[in-house]
Every structure is written in structure tokens, then in C-alpha cells.
Amino acid sequence: MGVYSKDKCIEHRADEVDAFITTYFANEDLKCCIIAGAGFDPRAKVISERLASLGKCEFSGFYLKELRSNPVANMTEQADKNFAVIKQHIPNADLVEINIFAEDGAVIGGSEVCKFFSQKDFSEYSDIVIDLSAISIGTSFPLVGLFYKNPDLTANLHLMVAANANVDDGIIPSEWGEPQCIHGFQNGYGLQGGDRKAKLWLPQLSLNKQKAFEMIASSEDMDDICPILPFSCRHPRRGDDFLIEFMNEMRGWDVDSRSILYVAEDNPIDLYRTLLRIANDREKVFEEYGGSMIILSPGRSKMLAIGALMGALELNFPIVYCEAIDYSSCPIDTLDEHFLGHVWLKGSVYPDT
Amino acid sequence: MINPFEKRATEYIRDNEVFLSIVSPEPLSSFLKEFAVQDILYDRLVRIIGTPGSGKTTMAKLFQYEVIDAALKSADLNKPIIDALTSCGAIKNSKIALLGCRLPLGSEYRAIWELNYPKDLKSGLLRSIIQARSVLGWFRQLASISSLEKVTIIPRSGSEGKLEFIGGINGESIVSRAKTIERSVYAITSSLVPPELDGLSPDAISAYEPFDVIERVVVESSDGEANSLFPLVMLDDVHSLHEEQFTSVCQWLGDREVKVARWLLMRYDALSAREAITVHTSSSKKSRDVTTITMQKGSERLKERKKFRVMAKDMANRALPKIAVFSSRNINEFAKLLNTDVSPLSQQQIEKVKTTTNKMQKKLGISDARRDALLKTIEDFNDEFLEEEKYAILGILFNRYAKRVPNKSLFEDIEPSRPIQMSRGIYEGAKIHLMHKFKRPTYYGINTLCDASTENAEQFLRLASTLVDTIETRIIQRKGVGLDAGMQDRLLRARAGELIDQWAFPGSVTVRNLVERIASECVSVSLAPNAWLAGGANAIGIPQNEFNLINETHPNLAKTIQAGVAHNAFTLIPNYSTKNIEWCLIELGGLCVLNYGLTLNRGGFIESTARNLDNMITERL
């Protein structure tokens, strides 16, 4: 059984998040550091606004601005506006610019964010909230991993997200980098020495990701592919839409309907537990044949990304992705309600970890 | 069974026998044989440069030990490949001579450059992991045919002192040492925060140089016979490295003291913009220390086009029988499935062509006598033109005549300053006019498909796959074998458009801008009423002396051109001399030609400047 099995995981969704913030962060003795995105994504300010308005403790924060090569003008404007709003709610907010790419186009965002935060001292904080709403996974995952794997971390570690499928669909990458592992999430992927493990690839299908997933599928010799689709989601036909988008790719990958994994879109624990179950079953099967390797490729859904992250942190799954070089469109601020999520990842509530 | 026409199908195929049945040996003869004959393929650094899909990786796979072994085990089925490998020195006296392994250099190697360590240490880590993985690649292949206890190495003379650092001479201990080195470097590169200098594992920073030590690998077979193999490492995707890493690897492997054979496979964007353009536009060359082989060149294009047609047809004919619908009907020649007879336009459309031409005659004030003379000129050239072709050509000749007699009065018939002559180029121009105005098929037949592939194997397969899918469906539906010219034209143009829409490589946005602008101007010129560029334009030219300076004067344009060349959107033709001026032509790739409806024939270009092109990449249509 994993660390975050049903009874042990402290997690909240939708209205429960506000209730948790109101209750937990009412303690004025707490000192909380928020680490979030400060880009063009309209969700950048949502969690910070909520914390500042409902919580009573001291908040400060680091807000990451991901620098890419040729941002469209309105994206930069939007990012500046978002940060201005954040600053109103969190006066002690610092803007941190992170280069996602080196001059030659190599992806360095993950290593840059780790370099920055590994030099900071967080011992004064009782809680660290990492808001994944507006940070790309190439940056947020290494950031979470850095705190999660730090044995000296005394603060409680929380993950929060404001999920919105319409916003996800509105952010359209125009150019993709080469497939690679997220920084710090190699976990044996690519090692030549040692027994050859049976590789299972679990891509989480999303709109506008065909090209990226096709590149990943071409780059590595996967033994099996089981795409992840949302089922039990707020737009009932969403899973079908993704299937239609990926029809050609699924044919090329030789995937049939029995190989599709259905997980609840708004519950990261469902994906996390599914991954644990699959990993456990596969180890038993492949133990005598070199072992099993499960390779994750998260899609656009922030909630499911949390589930994938939790599984990867606990069981050391490699995560392979393609970094978006540029975006061709930027969603305007939406009146849609965002779906909030919180997972208490590490800290005093899990005394055994 | 995977469809061999699907993109990069050969890279999906794990089974060596299946791989061998699909792959064409032609590239080995086209690109490598001449260097093997000169004996400069294995004794020095070799750089193999080509666009994505040009066949570098597939060619490298053929030189892997396990693939050659599989080929020899079924020698009857693989004779052409065995012959090609023999001509390249990979097989001697029907025995494998090379121990080849291919090592793709992905982002993991580039990440070493981001570590906060001194440059020498970073270079050392890169060299260690490359060598460790090469050793593991070599011995993994041997382990499948022989116990590693029976594998030993012959060290280079004078390197005996370094043996202990690589694990000795025995296969098992060498592999064990390589695994240790790999894991120790991997632990550093895969950590979230790399260890401090004083926390580095001794194995990671130890002196480990198997490339300096290993001269031969000897495998003792079950019957006691010893086979001495020459190790070859093929580093693929070297363009992923940082510029300084790339330089350091080239210097390291360019050293003649390194005894293993070593090839670097890369795209043009591995090189600086300046070198990429230079290398792309000159013939393959050799120096004492480096052999450079370019898979596509701007020069020698007619020769390359012919070679590619042979290779592509061979590839297609090997792939076709792998699809059940074709193999069950003994269909194994792809060219025969692509009909080249063009149906005439409908009577109604022919009348429209005639009406248009007649109106043009009236508007330009051309006499009936002149019209008859021009018609005779056309018929003397070729009396088998279809009606619509004849009238489209006549329209062009009317406009040419009008241009040459500018001062004549209406319906006066004057001899033009230069006689109006008919040519093949004018016929090509008429076809372009008919394509745009009447949707007459232009792109059909195997040679057109080959030419539209811009000498790129993957592009050929991706274009061909749409035709193969449709033919397969028609056969199942009993609608006949083969595809008419009209259907081929529609499918190829649609497919080209799809593939361009799928461009998502770094720099693709500006490349697409530039392509759109150039194509738009080429279409305008191609549809000029007098077809002054004959078959039309498919390129834009800037003076060569301006082009030589674009890295300094227009760096964004240089980068865009480099990205476009690297991904087959453009081909560069330098020093193209016309009207006493030397031009550098930026010729649109085959996909762009199909998508925008331009000529596949080479030579027609629009004169421009570097500044104009630079403006194009920022302006959108």
C-alpha cells in the first residue's frame, strides 16, 4: 500500500479547499511560503487570492515567470497584470525569472529552478504551498521533487491547483522540443547497463499534444502503451474527444480499447492509486525477466498531473515529456469556475514518512 | 504488421529480420561506398550530415553487429544488403568485420553541460559516459551470440598501462567496469541537485578511456574459431550537444590516436549557421583527420535526384509486399500503381480555356494570321498536345508576342523583335496555369513523388503512405488496382499541406512565415500571363555577396534559413550564375511546392535582397 492510500491521504477538492484554508490557515502562528507561477495563465492568481483572503497567517511567496524565446505580446502583458494582482494580495511576493531554454535551445528550466531554490533557506516557514496551476510540468515537477526529497525539510509541504479544462485547451503550443525526461525524474530511464526492463508507457491524452506524444513514441522502444483517458469528468464527452483526436496515433501504437486506463479527471488520488496497483502487479509478473519500468507522460490536466507526480515521487517512475517552446495562443481570463484541489504531500500529518 | 510506409517505421522495428526485409541498401552505395573504397571510413572521424528523415539512423542501424549477423544468417534473402555492406568493408570474406553500435545522444548528454563544474570535468564526464555506453553496446550484442568469457580485447600497442582502468582484457570485467562508470555518471546527471565537487564518486571522475585502449575485439565462437572485429561507434543526434561539447567531441574523436572507428551523425543545425550553409552547399569532402559526408547537397542536384529516385523506388518496392492486401495479389511494383495518363478536361472547361485565350487575343489586338502562325509553332513543337494545353500555351505566346511588339497598333501584324519560340519550359508554364485556373492534375507518377520528397526518405514515405492507403482501400472495395492522376494530385497536395501544418520544430513559426511569403510571390510570378519564367518560380534569390554576410547583417534570417534547411523546408543553391550576377537561391522544399502549386523543376527564381527576406519573417500574410 502506498504512502497516500485512501485513509492516509489528506486531500481536498472543490469547496473543501476553501474550508481547509479557512480552518488550517486561520492559525496566525503559521508562516507560509507560496511558490507559484506568474505567467499569462489566468489561474496564476487564483490560489494566492484564496489564501490571502481566507487565511489569517503570514504569507510570502516566490512567483515564477517562465521565460521562453518569442512570447506573443499579449502574453507578457497578461503576465504582468497577473503579478500585479498577486502583489496586491501577497505584498511579500518576489518575482523570479526562470529561463526555460539555454541559448542553443536546450531545456534548462528544471535545473534552473532547482539551482535557485536549493540555495534558499526555508527553515523559518511552517508551511510551503506549491501552486501548480500556472507552472509548466518541466518546472513544477523538479520543484516539488526538490522539497519532497529534502530530508532536512521541516515545513509541511502542500500542493494546490486551480484546474480548468477550458483554460488548458486554450493554451496551444506551437513548437515542441525533443522528448526528454523531466529534470530529476530519469529514474533509470536510458541506462544501458543492467537488465532490460519491460517498458510500459502511460501517456495522458490531451488536446494539442499529438505531435509531442508521437515524438515520444518514436524516440523509445516501448513494449506496451496504455493511454490514460479521463472518465467521470465534468464534460462527459471529453474522453471521447481525446480518443477521436488520437485515432491515428492509437492505430500506429497498436492500442486497442482494452488497453485504455480510465481515471477520474478531478481526483488525483484515483490516478495515483491506479499507478500503484499497476506497478505492484507488473513487478510480480516481470520480476524474473528483468523487472518492469512504467514511464509516465502527463497531459494538460493539472489534477491528473498531481496524481502522476505523486506516483513518480513514491515509486520512482521516469517521466518523459516534450517542453513547449512557444505558444500560439493565450487564453483570456475566463468566467468559468476553476476547480480547486489540495494535497498535503509531506509533513506532520504523515509521521511515518 | 506495422505499415512500412508509416513515418519512421524502420525505427519501430525491433526484429532485425523484419528490418532487413524493408530497408533499402541503396544509401550505402550512394553515400558510403566511395569512402570505403578510398579506405577513409574507419580510420578517422567521419561526420554524416543530413536533414531529419534523410536516412542517417537507418543507415547506421545497418552497421550494427547484430543486424549484420542477422543478414548473414539469412544470406539468401539479404544478398543486396550483404553486397552493399561488403562494398563498405563491414563484411569481409562473408564474415562480419565490424563491431558496430549506435548511440543516440539525447538531451541527457547536453544536460552535463549545465552542471556547475569546471569545463574539463564536464568534458570528462561526457567522454566517460559515451565510452561506457559504447562498450556496453558492443558487448551486449556479443553476449547474445557468445559468453562474455570468450570475448577478449586486443589493446592498442603502448596502452597496456591503461588496461586496468577499463577492466582488463576480458569481456566480463570490461562490461562490469563500464556499468560502474555509467551508473556513477548517471547518478550525477539524474539528480535534482548535483553533488558538490568533493562529493563526486571516484568512479565518475576516474580516468576511463576504452577508445584509447581497444584496438580489436576477439570473439571465440563455439567451434573454437576466433573472429577479430574492428569496433565502430556511431554517435547519433550529435546536434543535441552544446556547441562547446560538440567542438570538444570532434576534437577528441578527430585525434588519430583514437583507434576505434567513429562516426558522428547529425543534422545541419549541429553546425554553426555559417558552417551549415557551407557544408550543405558543397560536395562531400575529406581531410586528413575528418571525412564529411552530406546526405543532401545543394550542388550535384540532378545526379542526386536520379540517385534518390532509384533508392526511393527500391524502398517502396520492398515495403509494398509487407502489406497483406498487396502481397496476396503479388503486387510488388509501386510505380505501376501510379497511373500517369492525364484525362483531358471536360468539354465545358476546354471551352472556357479557349474563350479565355480568344478574349486575350482580342484584348491584345493580335491578328488571326499571327494566331495561326503561333498555333503552327506549337504544333511543330509537338502535335500531340491536348486541346486545353494547346490553348493555354497559345495564351502565353500571345502575351509574349504583345510584349515584343509594344508599339504596334490594334490588329496590325508586325514581326516581333525576337521570334516567338516554343519550348518545354513554356509547356510547363501552361500546366501551372491550368492547375491553378482549372484544377488540372499536375502531381502524379512515381518520379514526381520522388522529386517532391526533396531527396528525403522519410518525406517520401510520408507522402507515399497517403497514396498506398487509398490504393489499399480501393483494392478492398474492388474499385481496381492503381490510382488515376487526378486522385494522386489531390491526395499529394492535401498530404503536403497536412505535413506542413504539423511542423513544430524549434523555429518552425518563422520558417512557416518565410515559406508562405516566398510561395505567395512564386505563385504570382508563375501565373504571369506571359510565363516569363517558363515553368515558374519555386525559389527566391539574393545576391551571393549579400548572402555571405547574413550571419552578421541579418542574424534572425540566418537562423531561420538554417532551421528551414535543417528540416527540409528549403534547399540552398549558392553561386547560381545568371545575367552575370552570382545568386544564392533559397529553393522551396517539395512539400511547399506541392502545397502551393509550383513547379518541381529547378532554376526559376525571383530576385530579392536579404533585407526583403528579413522583413518577410516578421510580416504575416
Lateral arrangement of strands in the main beta sheet of chain A: 1-14-6-5-2-3-4
Mean pLDDT of chain A: 90
Annotation field: number of helices of chain B: 29
Number of strands of chain A: 14
Query: Biggest interface: chains and residue counts?
Result: A-B, 42 and 41 residues
Sheet-strand content of chain B, in percent, reads: 5-15%
The main sheet of chain A comes to:
7 strands, mixed
- Poorly predicted segments of chain A: none
Shape descriptor of chain B: elongated
Secondary structure: helix percent of chain A: 25-40%
Strand composition percent of chain A: 15-25%
Determine the N-to-C terminus distance of chain A: 13 Å
Q: Which structural class matches the secondary elements of chain A?
A: alpha/beta
Number of extended strands of chain B: 14
Rg of chain B to the nearest angstrom?
Answer: 29 Å
Major sheet of chain B: 8 strands, mixed
Q: What general form of chain A does the structure show?
A: globular
**Class computed from helices, strands and strand pairing of chain B:** alpha/beta
Oligomer type:
heterodimer
List the helices and strands of chain A in order.
EHEHEHEHEHEHEEHEEHHEHEHEE
Q: Give the helix proportion of chain B (percent range).
A: 40-55%
Provide structural commentary.
The complex is a heterodimer of chains A (353) and B (621). Chain A is α/β, with parallel strands linked by helices and 353 residues long. Chain A has helices at 15-24, 46-54, 73-89, 109-118, 137-148, 165-170, 210-219, 238-245, 247-253, 268-286, 302-315; strands spanning 11-13, 31-37, 58-67, 93-99, 127-131, 156-163, 172-181, 198-203, 224-225, 228-230, 261-263, 292-297, 320-329, 339-346. The mean pLDDT of chain B is 89. Chain B contains 29 helices and 14 strands. Classes of the chains: A alpha/beta (353), B alpha/beta (621).
Q: Secondary-structure blueprint of this entry?
A:
The complex is a heterodimer of chains A (353) and B (621).
Chain A: E1 11-13, H1 15-24, E2 31-37, H2 46-54, E3 58-67, H3 73-89, E4 93-99, H4 109-118, E5 127-131, H5 137-148, E6 156-163, H6 165-170, E7 172-181, E8 198-203, H7 210-219, E9 224-225, E10 228-230, H8 238-245, H9 247-253, E11 261-263, H10 268-286, E12 292-297, H11 302-315, E13 320-329, E14 339-346
Parallel strand pairs in A: 2-3, 2-5, 3-4, 5-6, 8-9, 8-12, 10-11
Antiparallel strand pairs in A: 1-14, 6-14, 7-13
Chain B: H1 9-12, H2 16-22, H3 26-37, E1 45-49, H4 56-62, H5 65-73, H6 79-87, E2 91-92, E3 95-96, E4 98-104, H7 107-110, H8 119-143, E5 151-155, H9 163-166, H10 171-189, H11 202-205, H12 210-213, E6 214-220, E7 226-236, H13 243-254, E8 261-266, H14 273-281, E9 285-286, E10 290-294, H15 301-319, H16 324-327, H17 347-364, H18 368-381, H19 387-404, H20 424-438, H21 446-451, H22 457-476, H23 485-501, H24 508-526, E11 539-543, H25 544-547, H26 550-553, H27 555-566, E12 570-578, E13 581-588, H28 590-596, E14 605-607, H29 610-616
Parallel strand pairs in B: 1-8, 1-10, 4-7, 7-8, 11-14
Antiparallel strand pairs in B: 2-3, 5-6, 6-7, 9-10, 11-13, 12-13
